[in-house]
């Protein structure tokens, strides 16, 4: 069912309130319109909100509300020494979409708050402020060393795939 258009006398007040820190729902409730109508009025007036709204600082860095929640969740897991689950599991625990969790983890990683080693279910997250880390981590990588089907279990060069003592490229050994 379509809502009636927003009356002209409310548009100016909505535009004025749009620049504040309130949510679209709060603005709409004050003016008797839906959040979608507030959004549509703002778009028709060419307004855009700052996104994300910065509400907290962690170790001197601005973080979004979701980044803060993910950081606190990971910190608690590291404190307890739990194994790092997938983003799907974290999303289910926190009530967010797994893509949002991954985006928040990349954000706090780029801000230097955490370090992630490994991928998927085989990863370890280290909280850089405390040095605490989740249990688990990347499994050893099995690579072929030569045509004699001999294998080597352990860290290999990420560039050429050779054992550290046999690597000649010097590119991927850290």
Can you walk me through this structure?
The radius of gyration is 24 Å and the shape is elongated. It has helices at about 10-20, 25-30, 35-45, 65-80, 85-95, 100-110, and strands at about 55-60, 60-65, 115-120, 120-125, 140-145, 150-155. It is about 40% helix and about 15% strand. It has about 170 residues and is α+β, with helices and mostly antiparallel strands. It has three domains: about 10-45; about 55-125, Winged helix-like DNA-binding domain superfamily/Winged helix DNA-binding domain (Arc Repressor Mutant, subunit A, Orthogonal Bundle); about 140-174, no CATH class. The strands form three sheets. It has a two-stranded antiparallel ribbon. A two-stranded antiparallel ribbon has the order 3-4. Strands 5-6 form a two-stranded antiparallel sheet. It is built from six helices and six strands; from the N terminus they run H-H-H-E-E-H-H-H-E-E-E-E.
Q: Output the strand order for the largest sheet.
A: 1-2
Number of domains: 3
Taking all Cα atoms into account, the compactness measure Rg is 24 Å
Strand content: 5-15%
Key features?
elongated; alpha+beta; Arc Repressor Mutant, subunit A; 3 domains; two-stranded antiparallel ribbon
Question: Gist?
Answer:
The protein is an alpha+beta fold and 174 residues long.
What is the strand and helix layout of this fold?
Layout: H1 8-18, H2 24-31, H3 35-44, E1 56-58, E2 61-63, H4 65-80, H5 87-94, H6 98-110, E3 114-119, E4 122-127, E5 141-144, E6 151-154
Helix pairs in contact: 1-2, 2-3, 4-6, 5-6
């Amino acid at each position: 069912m379509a809502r009636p258009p927003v009356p002209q006398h409310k548009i100016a007040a909505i535009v004025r309130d749009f620049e504040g820190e309130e949510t679209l729902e709060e603005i709409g409730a004050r003016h008797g319109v839906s959040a979608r109508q507030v959004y549509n009025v703002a778009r028709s007036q060419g307004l855009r909100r700052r996104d994300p709204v910065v509400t907290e600082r962690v170790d001197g860095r601005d973080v979004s509300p979701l980044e803060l929640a993910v950081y606190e969740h990971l910190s608690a897991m590291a404190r307890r020494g739990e194994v790092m689950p997938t983003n799907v599991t974290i999303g289910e625990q926190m009530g967010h979409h797994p893509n949002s969790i991954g985006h928040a983890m990349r954000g706090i990683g780029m801000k230097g708050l955490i370090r992630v080693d490994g991928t998927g279910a085989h990863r370890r997250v280290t909280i850089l402020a405390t040095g605490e880390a989740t249990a688990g981590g990347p499994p050893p990588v099995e690579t072929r060393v030569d045509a004699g089907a001999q294998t080597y279990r352990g860290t290999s060069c990420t560039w050429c795939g050779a054992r550290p003592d046999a690597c000649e490229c010097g590119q991927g050994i850290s």
